[in-house]
Amino acid sequence: MTNSSYASKPLSAPQKALRKMGLLRDIDLGLHLPMRYEDETHWASLDQARDADSVQFLAVVKSSEVVFKPRRQLIVQVQEIKFNGLVKVPSPNENELGETLGDFCTLRFFNFYPSLQKSLAVGKKVRLRGEIKGGMLGKTMMHPSIHAFDDVLPTTLTPVYSTTAGLPQSYLKRAVMTGLDRCIRLGAFQETIPTEYQSESMWPLVKAVQFLHAPTAGVSIAQLEDKTHPAWQRLKAEELLAQQISQLRAKRERQSLMAPNLSGEVGGVNCLTKELLQILPFQLTNAQSRVVSEITRDIAKTTPMYRLLQGDVGSGKTVVAALAATQCIDSGYQCVLMAPTEILAEQHFKKLVDWLAPLLEKKNLLVAWLSGSQKKKERQKMLEITQDGQAALVIGTHAVIQDQVKFRSLGLVLIDEQHRFGVAQRLALKAKLQDQEPHLLMMSATPIPRTLAMSYYADLDVSTLDELPPGRTPVVTKVISDQRRDEVVTRIKAQISLGRQVYWVCPLIEDSEALDLVNATQTHQLLSESLPGINVGLLHSKMPTADKKDVMQQFTDGKTGVLVSTTVIEVGVDVPNASLMVIEHAERFGLSQLHQLRGRVGRGAAASACVLMYSLGEHGRLGETARERLKAMAQTQDGFEIARRDLEIRGPGEFLGSRQSGAAMLRFADLSTDQEWLDWAQDLAPKMLDSYPVQAQEHVARWLGHKLEYLKA
Question: Which regions of the chain carry the CATH code 3.40.50.300?
Answer without folding.
Answer: 271-465, 475-636
